[in-house]
Amino acid sequence: MKKILHIISSPRGAESFSIKLGNQIIEKLKATYPGSTVTERDLVKEQFPVLEEAHLTSFFTPAEQRTPEGAEAARHSEEAIAQLMDADIIVIGAPMYNFNIHASLKAWIDHIVRAGLTFKYDENGPQGLVGNKKLYVAVSSGGIYSEGPMQANDFVVPYLKFMLGFIGLTDIEVYRAEGLAIPVIKDTALEKAFNSVVIN
Ligand SMILES: Cc1cc2nc3c(=O)[nH]c(=O)nc-3n(C[C@H](O)[C@H](O)[C@H](O)COP(=O)(O)O)c2cc1C
User: Fold this and answer.
1) What digits encode the pLDDT tens for the residues 133-184?
2) What contacts 24+ positions apart, CB below 8 Å, involve 60-64?
3) Domain that holds residue 109
4) Using CA atoms, how far apart are residues 200 and 193, in angstroms rounded to an integer?
5) How many domains would you assign to the chain?
6) Which residue of 8, 98, 182 sits with most ligand 1 atoms within 8 Å of its CB, as the best mutation to test the pocket?
């Protein structure tokens, strides 16, 4: 029995391939771990604010010294970090937009990457503080990036692997629904992605 956190960052709702692939991963997780619970966080429907000065000030002010406005500015970040820490397994849906992640996912990341809370520096360099969790990433893209000439232009997977690894989420499995805009390939892209999902 696991606590699963599903992070959604597609604006396309029921039509979204990254959401469908994320849901497929979750179905297989639930079959592997009966009784698991799923918390869904839709970053497009409930967006995290772009970081402003008030957020940065509050992040670097101890909680007991924050003004009421400062506490409010830190609220999104602290709720998101608590939700992340509480989960055993995280499934992130990551549609490719302009070769990168959707802005809503970047905004969430900017609120969960916090010095002293999710990472720290010590004599050995940076150390992630979000430990012992499995991360699945469901990527969707019009083109193909797992191999071939466009591989170097994928800024979704390398970024997510580095960034989430930086805060300690190093146990990462990536699944792709790709070629969704390529004739013929698109017809079987989702089914192929579904079939590729293996839970160990
Ligand atoms: C504004 C926009 C930008 C996109 N940029 C890319 C891109 O750079 N590379 C790519 O392969 N597909 C791109 N696509 C296609 C999406 O990745 C594809 O539609 C995918 O299914 C989106 O994920 P979703 O179905 O979960 O929303 C773009 C689509 C839109 C609407």
Assistant:
1) 999 999 999 999 999 999 999 999 999 999 999 999 999 999 999 999 999 9
2) none
3) 3-196
4) 17
5) 1
6) 98
Residue nearest to atom 31 of ligand 1 (CA): 97
Statement: the pTM of the whole predicted model exceeds 0.90: yes
Q: What is the CATH number of the domain that holds 181?
A: 3.40.50.360
> SS3 of 112, please?
helix
Token pair listed for 64:
């007991």
pLDDT digits (tens, 9 = 90+) for 27-74: 999 999 999 999 999 999 999 999 999 999 999 999 999 999 999 999
CA of 166 to the centre of ligand 1 (A): 26
Vertex 4 angle, CA 13 and 78, to 5°: 85
Within 10 A of 160 (CB to CB), how many other CB atoms are there? 21
